[in-house]
Amino acid sequence: MTSDTQFDAIVIGGGPAGSTTAGLLAKRGARVLVLERERFPREHVGESLLPASLPILEELGIRQPVEDAGFLKKYGATMVWGSSPEPWSWYFQETNRTYPHAYQVVRAQFDEILLRHAATLGADVREEHRVVEVLRTDAGWGDRVTGVVFEDDDGSRGEATAHVVVDASGQQALVANALGLRRWDDFFRNLAVHGYYRDAERLPSPDENNILVEAHADGWCWTIPLHDGRASVGVVVDSERARERIEGGDLQAFLAEHVASAPRTASLLANARLEGEPRAIRDWSYVATSLIGDGYVLAGDAACFVDPLFSSGVHLAMNAGVLAAAYVSTLMEDEQLAEESRPVYERLYLQQYDHFRELAKLFYSSNRTADSYFWEARRLDPESADLPARAAFVNAVAGQPAAGYERVVLDRGEAPEAFVAAVRSTEMERAARQAAAEESRPAVAGAVPRVAAGVELVIEPVLEGGAFVRSHVVRSPDRPSGVPISPVVAAALALADGNRSVLEIAERLALDYEIELARLAPVVASAFEILYIDGAVEELTRP
Hints:
Number of domains: 4
Shape: globular
Largest sheet: 9 strands, mixed
CATH class of the largest domain: Alpha Beta
Number of helices: 17
CATH topology of the largest domain: FAD/NAD(P)-binding domain
Radius of gyration: 25 Å
Strand content: 15-25%
CATH superfamily of the largest domain: FAD/NAD(P)-binding domain
Oligomer: single chain
Structural class: alpha+beta
CATH architecture of the largest domain: 3-Layer(bba) Sandwich
């Protein structure tokens, strides 16, 4: 067995999570080893991307190579879902002017672009190297991951150690399984069978590049057009009911049977032919009980996997790569700050995971195109505590974030009444605050602000410039993860005790920070207006 010099980070897996982590770390000068068990290019399902991944491609420096690859631009999605059997579409540009499209990618090609770029940036990329053991030690402060044992394509073994092992091994979840961290999601209980069809029809313009998602009695189907003339097609069904049929059964017949149950999908595939054998993905929805710990970070599918209804897999993986690289970069500079950053890493990661999970639950519960065991088993009990009407999620839906899916569940489905009411109430409250702020703007300098109940000002790590830094953060019941603010705004909020006017607070800060009052007063007034609209400050009242 050979032993390598210690690395700053070992990344298990060269998919989007691993390549993003390795590329960003190598770009910042870290010594990174990537161990990938396969030889790229290799086929992989999950071809439909989201616009939220494009800024990460830009940060890596590969937006142009992805553009040059010729992938189809995805402007939105078309769905047969909700209360009507007719298809309907939504478009990214409705909520995201900066990034109005994503891509429908051939994952073999897309993933190779990411991995080769990580190597170009300086990562030590070793393909056909399989991790066979996760090294751990008890150094007196608990069990710690210290490295890995790997095996190359000719059977030779090696050992590598690092400050951090980033588990981006996909659904293998090597570190998570070694530490017993995986927890299955009981809500979805789904599996998928998928394959690739040649010469499938496309949706009518302007939706020809859209993904088609079609609900039917026993689940739902996806159809994703690809630039190489193929279409990725999959069916999502109940895992328990389908397990006996697919284990040792005819997957091609299974796929064809469920496609036939979805008339819009079947129409697109009427003259198409299946290439190769379909594949099954079993028991896929899960999350690890700990995403980061002594010597390890989980990223991508190794950390969690949520139902693919909203094509969130690659985005969650690449976003995890950004967070993992930030954590390792912080660890290389400041171990104490890195320690403080662990819960923030987990909170930021789970915030996005939970959002897509709650959204998928709402869509499943809102579908009325079919009545069957599959859909009835996935209805949300309106009285249940599991109803995804938590304040943070309601606030996000009411705010129409850039993902764009959130609003359509209200308009196209039959969402639980309690959820719809919570969203409407939040929107009305926000609109009232907006109107009140605009009306009182001329006299805001004399208004007396007070921090709202449940709002707290803390100093904690935030993601900034590729690493974690300590910053002032405002937390509220609507935004439990917190919103970073500048030191001046933090100082202004700390003085908002219901006794001082906005002008008096600005005068105090002008002295403290030695800034001209004429320059500072409008900034402070604007900050309080925003904080008021967002609910962090109570109604601006006269003394």
